[in-house]
Design a protein that fits this description.
It contains 4 helices and 5 strands; from the N terminus they run βααββαββα. The chain has 157 residues and is α+β, with helices and mostly antiparallel strands. Strands 1-2-3-5-4 form a 5-stranded antiparallel β-sheet, with helices on one face.
Amino acid sequence: MGHTTGVADRRPLMADIMSVSGVFEGSEDIAVARELARAFLADVQAVHGLPVSEYAMGGVELVVSELVTNARKYAPGPCMLTLEVVGGTVEVTVWDSNPTPPAVLAPDPTRVGQHGLEIVMAVSQSFAVHREPVGKRITTAIALTDDPSVVAAGHRL
C-alpha cells in the first residue's frame, strides 16, 4: 500500500476500496457465496460504518445466489465472485468461463423457471455483460441504502 495517488495527495491508492472475492467450483458453494456476501456487508456496516439497508442485504444475497447459480449451471469450471463498494452501491461481479452472453428473456408470468436474470435486473440499479479474453463478466450494482444521500452524508466513498 505504499503507492500514492499524486504529489499533492499522499493517501494510499487502495485505502478507500472495500471489496472481497471468492472462487466457487461446486453447487454446494452457492450457499458459501451467499454467506460471503452477508459477511462482507456486515463488515461494511460494522467495520467501515456505512449504513446497509435490509433491502440491500437481501438484494445482494439474491443477486449473488442467482448469478453464481447460473455460472455453475451454464459454464464449465470455476466462477469468481467479487463484491465491491463503489459510490454508495455494492457492485456484484461474477466471472465464468462461458463467453456466451446470457439470454435475457422478456417477463412472462406463465413461464416456469428461467426468471433469474429478470429478478437480478429488477433489484439492481445496473446490469452489464462484458466479454473477456476467456469467458464473460456480469456486473450489477445495488444501492447500499434506500436513500443514497444517507451514505454520502459524513462518509467518503
